[in-house]
From TrEMBL:
GO annotation, cellular component aspect: cytosol
Entry-linked SMART domains: RNB
Domain called RNB: residue spans: 48-357
Pfam families per record: RNase_II_C_S1, RNB
GO biological process: mRNA catabolic process
GO MF annotation, one: RNA binding
Protein name (database record): Ribonuclease II
InterPro entries registered for this protein in UniProt: NA-bd_OB-fold, RNase_II/R, RNase_II_C_S1, RNR_Ribonuclease
Length: 462
């Protein structure tokens, strides 16, 4: 991890500039806070069955307070049953009220190192609706049956009162704190993923973390084993929910196309330059399953794969069309993070209806038509903010090192403009390199650093 010493406050002032540039909201309007306070006091009704005696736990980053998911797992013959409790945001937020209207403006929570701009006010997202272990909480519990072959099926969806027994953290959780079948559940999901030819690309992410005292850290952070295993719970629930919605002829789905032929050709060049063994008869997904986040060359290729795709989006159910997510190789939906994504609240409402023999509300069906554009705008903004924060951190980290030479690898090109990854630190930048090819190793001189514009200028060493 590279610590960034920032005595001049360039990072703090730069983050303020990013917030201003992208109009990141500071807090919530008074009428939204007032409505959230009233909503937080709402008492669950008879439809919330009492499940407070069940051993639900949460597993998240240690500092998280907006907890969407709690779970426990039990065996049933050869099957594993996931009881997946999701924050019941729709219980607190009413269509058309000030909290709902503000959420539609935001789309999703925006994260920055110095704080987040939440989708919902803290009275809901970090207290009343969050599945914290300080008392009973209303939730929607999905019962997901996982067969021995790793196929997930939705058995039930009910509103319930649950009580989390523990707030577990990715970086400190012990196996004995988790359900006995937690690891077995993840193994089945991973085996099923490989069997259907899926490959979720999880490259290490550039991350900026506030350390206090005006210091920050910039790093490439591979996912922890606990994170990867925990992700299989959401994957199983979302796959089962997507199938149930599709069969019912309703829903909102996460869709993604694969790389184009031209992008595939660039990826093969990148792999060759990075020294990866990629035989012609092996497809991209099979190669991806052999990659290791901790290997710098593999990490560079994983980043190139992520950029080669067209990106994921949302699509409502359309008669005669099977929504498809290429990376997951399945029909897929988002339903497990309603505190952070607007769309999930409506998907959960639809699942509650179809699982209990009711018609999906007209307001929900109408929302499915509007949400793709709203979520695309929010995701684009999130990506712009994240890139701006990383660019800022890179300039602060490299201040004073002008003239030094850095080893780099070209990961993608656009004419004479090349995207490069430095090999000795977590920096991704652009440089003018005539005739550059993906996978090429180059020595670059740092010609300039501009923290205000968040720009690094590299030039090939002659």
């Amino acid at each position: 991890m590279k610590a960034i010493h920032d005595p001049s406050g360039a990072l703090a002032s730069g983050l303020a500039a990013i917030r201003q540039q992208f109009q990141v909201p500071e807090g919530f309007p008074p009428e939204v806070l007032a409505a959230a306070a009233l909503a937080a006091a709402r008492t669950p009704g008879q439809e919330h069955v009492d499940r407070t005696d069940e051993p639900f736990v949460t597993l998240d980053p240690a500092t998280s307070t907006d907890l969407d998911q709690a779970f426990h797992i039990e065996a049933s013959g050869n099957d594993l049953i996931l009881h997946y409790a999701i924050a019941d945001v729709a219980w607190f937020v009413v269509d058309g009220d000030p909290v709902d209207a503000e959420a539609w403006k935001r789309g999703e929570t925006q994260y920055l190192p110095d704080g987040k701009a939440g989708l919902y006010p803290p009275a809901l997202a970090e207290r009343a609706a969050s599945l914290l272990p300080d008392g009973p909480r209303p939730a929607v519990v999905f019962t997901v049956r996982l067969g021995a072959n790793g196929q997930a099926r939705l058995d039930a969806a009910r509103r319930a009162m649950i009580r989390s027994q523990a707030k577990l953290a990715y970086d400190s959780v012990r196996p004995d704190q988790l359900p006995a079948d937690f690891a077995r559940f993840a193994e089945r999901m991973n085996a099923a993923e490989a069997a259907r030819g899926a490959a979720r690309v999880d490259p290490p992410e550039q991350e900026v973390e506030a350390l206090g005292g005006g210091r920050y850290a910039l790093s490439f952070r591979p996912l922890l084993a606990s994170e990867r295993a925990n992700a299989t719970l959401s994957l199983a629930a979302n796959l089962a929910i997507a199938e149930a919605l599709h069969q019912a002829g309703t829903g909102l789905f996460r869709v993604m196309a694969g790389p184009t032929a031209a992008a595939m050709a660039r990826l093969r060049s990148t792999a060759a330059g990075l020294g990866l063994d990629w035989p012609e008869h092996v497809d991209l997904k099979a190669l991806e399953r052999t990659l290791d986040q901790r290997n710098p060359d593999h990490a560079a290729f994983m980043l190139a794969v992520r950029r080669a795709g067209g990106g994921a989006g949302y699509a409502p159910w359309i008669p005669g069309v099977t929504p498809w997510h290429e990376a997951i190789s399945a029909t897929y939906a988002h339903a497990t993070a309603p505190l952070r994504r607007l769309a999930d609240r409506y998907v959960i409402r639809a699942v509650l209806a179809i699982a209990n023999g009711k018609a999906v509300e007209l307001e929900v069906e109408a929302a499915f038509q509007r949400l793709p554009a709203v979520m695309a705008k929010a995701e684009a903004l999130s990506g712009q903010i994240e890139r701006a924060v990383i660019d800022l951190a890179e300039t602060v980290m490299l201040q004073g090192r002008e003239g030094e030479t850095f080893r780099a690898c070209v990961t993608d090109t656009d004419g004479d403009s090349a995207r490069v990854q430095l090999l000795d630190m977590p920096v991704v930048a652009r440089a003018r390199i005539a005739g550059a090819a993906p996978g090429q190793r180059v020595d670059l001189s740092l010609a300039g650093v501009d923290s205000k514009q968040r720009r690094l200028q590299f030039a090939p060493v002659s």
